[in-house]
Structure formats: C-alpha cells, structure tokens
Amino acid sequence: MDALARQRVTRCQDGLPERTVWLVITRSLGAEPPYASDISHAPVSTSLRPFVWFSGLRWAMEQCCEAGKTARGMAHYAVRKYPGWYHHRLTTIRAHCFWWHLKRHVGKKSSGPHRVTAADIIGGRLTPTDVYD
Fold first, then answer.
1. Residues 6+ apart with CB under 8 A from 120
2. Per the domain annotation, does 21 fall within a domain?
3. Would 101 be classed as within a structural domain?
4. DSSP symbol at 76
5. What is the mean pLDDT of residues 63-79?
6. What are the counts of helices (DSSP H) followed by strands (DSSP E) for the chain?
7. Which structural domain, as residue segments, surrounds residue 10?
C-alpha cells in the first residue's frame, strides 16, 4: 500500500518562475519507505482521487509496455522520428489489449493447426458478441 500527497509548486527555468504545477509524492508504507515524485499539469480544481487512480494505472501501463516489448514486437522497431515510434508503440499496446481480451473470453490456445480452443469446436459457444464486447 502507498501513501500519496500533492502540493502546488512553481517550476523554474533558468532561475525564473515558469509554470505552477502539481508535485505528487508517493511513498510505500514501511520502516524505511522509498519516495517517488511526479509532476502533473492537472487543473487546480482536481481532487486527490484522480491522482490516486492514475498512480495505480501507471503500474498497469508499465506492465503493458513490458509485455509489448517481448510478445508484441516493440523491441524490434527501427524508426527514425518520434511520430513513427509513437505509432508503433500505440499499435503494440492496442495489439496487447486485443489479445488480452481475446484470451480472457476464449481461453487458452489449442495445439491444433487452426489455434481454436477445443470448447469452441465442440460447443460452438463463441459468438462475435463474446469477442467484441
């Protein structure tokens, strides 16, 4: 479990005030807790709840990116500019989400040549609604 705090601070560049942002500090609970900090450009009226939600979402995104590197081909990209890298990253994240949802609804892959699970061959229970909802 983590503790989270936020504070409005003013960023400086070259010794001059630049912009007011949120400083979000997270620490794990324990004897010697490690601290982590992030900057957020959220509006002043933002409550603490979205910061807590996004801090939990970050772990899920890191896991998705790591799976994209190994299983979806993100480690094998060769792009020269940011738009190409961004497009490839977005495509691998979408592919990962698609395969995750498909595996959840269909089950494990079969060892047969068509990669269809045995339950779907026998019962015919898989419908387009199962896959796309």
1. 106, 126
2. yes
3. no
4. G
5. 69
6. 4, 3
7. 1-46
